[in-house]
Amino acid sequence: MYSLKNDGKTYTPAPLTPKKVYEDQLKLKQEATSESIQTNNHDEIVRKTENKTSHELNNKRDKVSATREREESFDQSERKGVKVECG
User: Fold this and answer.
1) How many domains is the chain partitioned into structurally?
2) DSSP labels for 36-83?
C-alpha cells in the first residue's frame, strides 16, 4: 500500500471498489469524448473562417488586378492619343 506525507501528516488512500473504478472510467471516457467534440467544433470553425478569409482575399486581389488592367489600358490609350471618356 502507498502512503503520502504532506505537512508532517501521513495519508494512506483507501482502495477503490470495482464499481467506483468502473464509474471513474466512464466519467473519464465521457470527458474525453466531450473534449474531442469541442476540439472538432473549434477546428471546423477555424477552417471555415480561414476559407472565408482566403476567398475574400482572392476577391480583393482580383479587383485590384482588374483595376490595374483598366489603368494600364487607359494609360496606353493616352499615349496613343486616343480619347477615352470615363463614366
Assistant:
1) 1
2) HHHHHHHHHHHHHHHHHHHHHHHHHHHHHHHHHHHHHHHHHHHHHT--
**CA angle (58 as vertex; 56, 63 as ends), nearest 5:** 95
Phi, psi of 50 (to 5 degrees): -65, -40
Q: Which three cell numbers stand for residue 54?
A: 482566403
In a domain? residue 57: yes
Q: Which domain holds residue 66?
A: 43-73
Encode pLDDT of 17-50 as tens digits.
999 999 999 999 988 888 888 887 888 888 888 8
